[in-house]
Amino acid sequence: MSSPLEPTAQQIEALAARPADEPVVMVNLLRFKDGGRDSYLRYAHEVGPHLQRVGGTVRYAGAAPTQVIGEGTEPWWDAILVVEYPSPAAFLDMVTDEDYRRIHEYRSAALERGDLIATSTWAMTD
To answer: Is the pTM of the predicted complex or chain greater than 0.70?
Structure first.
């Protein structure tokens, strides 16, 4: 059973089909439930060893968004988190680990919405 905070089987398949030898950068757009920020901070604290085990690195974490271009005065999300993994398999290894699944409940409890977007490095030069 999937929910908006869990990937579908098709989404997992698409991630697994990405190039196995290239890093994947996950962009997390997070909208907290009322009082959810504390639960997410607990998750963020406890996920560290899991990230380290698979070679993941937090590249950026930020909040207090201000809309500069786009509709409205604020984006829909409260915080953004950018995490790099050495490969799609490393990310999948982490999120399917039994010990990780135990702390994942803090993430789920914290979020009203949590989009997770897999990206790759984009060379902008010829």
So the answer is: yes
